[in-house]
Amino acid sequence: MTDLDADRPPSGHILQELGFALARAGDEMRGSALVTPQMWAPGTTRLRTSILATWSDHAAGLLAVEGLAPRVPVTLELDVHAYQQPPGEGGIHAVARTVKAGRSIVVCSVDFTDDHGMPVALSTASFMAAPDPGLTMPPGVALLDSRDDPGERLQVPFAERARCERREPGVAVLHRSDDGLNSAQTVNGGLVALAVEEAALSVAPGATLSSIAMRYLRPVRVGPAVASAAVHAGLGRVEVRDAGSDDRLAVVATTRAFDR
After folding, report:
1. Could you give phi then psi for residue 44, rounded to 5 degrees?
2. From the CB of residue 31, how many other CB atoms can be counted at a distance below 10 Å?
3. CATH number of 2-257
4. Distance of alpha carbon 91 from alpha carbon 33, whole angstroms
5. In angstroms, what CA-CA distances link 211 with 107, 111, 127, 254?
6. Which residues fall within 8 angstroms of residue 73, CB to CB, at 6 or more apart?
7. Which of 68, 101, 126, 234 is the most buried (most CB within 10 A)?
């Protein structure tokens, strides 16, 4: 299980530079962001699927905070499936809804559309209350609203900014950094999605992912996070391990690339 960002990324956080602004709208969380070239998958002019996963985790996570308060939610599973190649320009809009809210589990859906209202991707995320009942959320976190200007936007490609490097075909390394942590001081789950994507794309240059499905087993506390992918016929199996913590398995994921 990965510790969820209990609050929006602080100023200077890597994810803040993605420009995703969130606001409460009745029972929904609604977000939007402008796609820039720094968000493209390498060798393409298409938005990274891992960025959609990051935005889904953020929007759905705030609903989970409300559903499980005062307990701290942790992400169990997160998947994103794109209908077609994501756009490379214009706005992306997200609507997150609670599908099920139990005493210990919250399941949310997130729908992404473009500026014309056309579907871009769909996502599902599930969260559970942290096993330690002593962990509680600070008052007011569930009321967070990110209408204000998110601040500086990415100036370099997302992977470069996040210090995520391709070590060899099938292997990507995400280095731990203070501006890439969540409120529990572990590696942000959205950045782990980037490592999964980079590992899968490193054996398919110029491709983009049509889907990412991740199961979080434990947080990456020490780092670096090392993602290893085995890909056949466009379908990938990816494992992410915490290299600084005896190579403990943190995330298992599956990916699929669009046909080129």
Report:
1. -135, 175
2. 22
3. 3.10.129.10
4. 6
5. 19, 14, 20, 8
6. 4, 61, 64, 65, 67, 106, 127, 128, 129, 130
7. 68
Tokens representing residue 12 in the block: 């200077």
pTM over cut 0.85:
yes
Give me the helix-helix angle, 189-201 and 49-68, nearest 10°: 150
**Phi (first) and psi of residue 9, to 5 degrees:** -60, 135
At 247, which amino acid appears? D
CA distance 2 to 187: 8
Q: Kindly state the helix (H) or strand (E) to which residue 44 belongs, with its residue range.
A: none
Spatial distance between the Cα atoms of 2 and 13, rounded to a whole number of angstroms: 18
Longest dimension (CA), the chain: 50
Cβ atoms of 110 and 44 within 8 Å: the answer is no
pLDDT tens for the chain, 260 residues: list them: 444 433 344 457 899 999 999 999 999 999 999 999 999 999 999 999 999 999 999 999 999 988 887 777 889 999 999 999 999 999 999 999 999 998 889 999 999 999 999 999 999 999 988 777 776 776 655 444 444 455 689 999 999 999 999 999 999 999 999 999 876 678 988 899 999 999 999 999 899 999 999 999 999 999 999 999 999 999 999 999 999 999 999 999 999 999 87
Reported residue count of the chain is 260
C-alpha closest to that of 68 among 94, 100, 42, 90: 100
DSSP track, 206-225? T--EEEEEEEE-S---SS-E
Nearest to 211 by CA among 246, 178, 238: 238
Which H or E run contains 174? strand 171-174
